[in-house]
Amino acid sequence: xxxxxxxxxxxxxxxxxxxxLEEFRRSHPDWRTLPYLWTRLLPAVGExxxxxxxxxxxxxTLRGTxxxxxxxxxxxxxxxxxxLEGAGLAPVLxxxxxxxxxxxxxxxxxxxxxxxxxxxxxxxxxxxxxxxQGWKADHAIPQAAxxxxxxxxxxxxxxxxxxHWYALESCRWAHxxxxxxxxxxxxxxxxxxxxxxxxxxGFLSGWSGVWVVDAARILGxxxxxxxxxxxxARRRRMLPILSRCLAWLxxxxxxxxxxxxxxxxxxxxxxKLNYHNFLARALLPWLEYRRAGGGGLPxxxxxxxxxxxxxxxxxxxxxxxxxxxxxxxARSSQPQPVGSLDDVREFWSRPSAQEAQDLIxxxxxxxxxxxxxxxxxMTPAVLAHSPARALEIGCGMGRVMIPVSxxxxxxxxxxxxxxMVEHSxxxxxxxxxxxxxxxxxxxLPIPDRSVQLVYSVxxxxxxxxxxxxxxxxxxxxxxxxxxxxxxxxTLHTAASPPVSQSYAGNGYTYxxxxxxxxxxxxxxxxxxESQEQGPYLWVTGRKV
Length: 544
What we know:
This protein is of the alpha/beta class. The protein has three domains: 5-253, 2-Layer Sandwich (Beta Polymerase, domain 2), CATH 3.30.460.40; 267-324, no CATH class; 341-543, Rossmann fold (3-Layer(aba) Sandwich), CATH 3.40.50. It has 25 helices and twelve strands. The strands form two sheets. A seven-stranded mixed sheet has the order 8-7-6-9-10-12-11, with helices on both faces. Helix 1 (5-14) packs antiparallel against helix 2 and helix 9 packs across helix 12.
């Protein structure tokens, strides 16, 4: 796992290293501009160190937001456990909720959702119970257990649940979790099993670094049976990955873990650790299928069709190519937005409601994606402003507006597509404090000085003319009250994001972050924060 040096410093600071905190402060003096994933470590940093006044102010705002998130998640978690256990099912807590006993101050351990483990045989009954309470499933229950490891569900309140029938995505075969079930303590895993799960899941996918703090908390409060830790990794055929994870934890953070002889990487573990490699992406589906006990080619093709949720085998080749090249799902029947605002309006007026969601973001058609986007919008600087009324430019159906509304009393959306506005009426029917208006692509149909926050995401990259973007920024200045904030995102010219043209758009692209920020300044805003995150440019401005 390769992380930037400042990110490693922040993780060390969360573990109590004062020197690492000073190094981090030198490169990042203003914590209001930190990437979202890094901010999830700040509560642990604040628990370990005395903070400066400006840092403490950011942390206080962040803690309030996290506390609100945790209250909602905890309420829904307890109700869900009571529902499932009342039906005779026996869920096990995973990830964040499983770590709660190790954090006396719950806010120190942020969560975006919660995870439960059930047997596959219980899944259909559990799903029926959840949907009967208003939960929405992101996928149908698969015909075969090994096709996926979990289903995502969204509660009416917006809380997300990942319901697992396998504890780890990489380990999907019969009886692989048998030791977890035998050794569990009520709703929780044995400490050795929990530690193994934290390390394997975190090392492969935990880019925030919170999992490192989790591992350290377990080590500091438990006497682990290391033979059971290693045996659990062997049962999962993941010992080569765990050995490298332990070495990384020891080398970078000095955690008290044993030296484990590093077994030779088999093909599967090599692919998991090198997923950026084309060959690894091409081989991994076959290796997953074989590890799950699959047989020959016909069964493999059926496995792929079910895993990728395709209507028939004839779609396999195109889908395999798309995934191996890391391209998004494309809908060839849809025209591409080109040329003018009229073209853009026509493009976004054609899709059905489901197609619109697929086009907005082809990889994550679930509430979790919208939640992640909102965390990029509602930075500590924005949260500290406490906007009562927010406006979204280019809101589409309104998916992002729902989680934004938890921070504002009212949210208004503007979109140039009549079809999107019509879709929003159905999509937002349970949210009376959110409304969507039809715009003309140049002006905002909102009175002067009437909102405290204007934001835009995945919109400017579709606008073909820079002058239109500049007009929107001037309009944002007009409708904002004094001191109000605007925060917007677009793509830059050098970007080559793994997204389709329908997502990236054919709009104007900026050649630098400074040129994007210059348009905010030209509209009258003072720049509060600006970030370049991979292919994305983000700027926040304040009306002065």
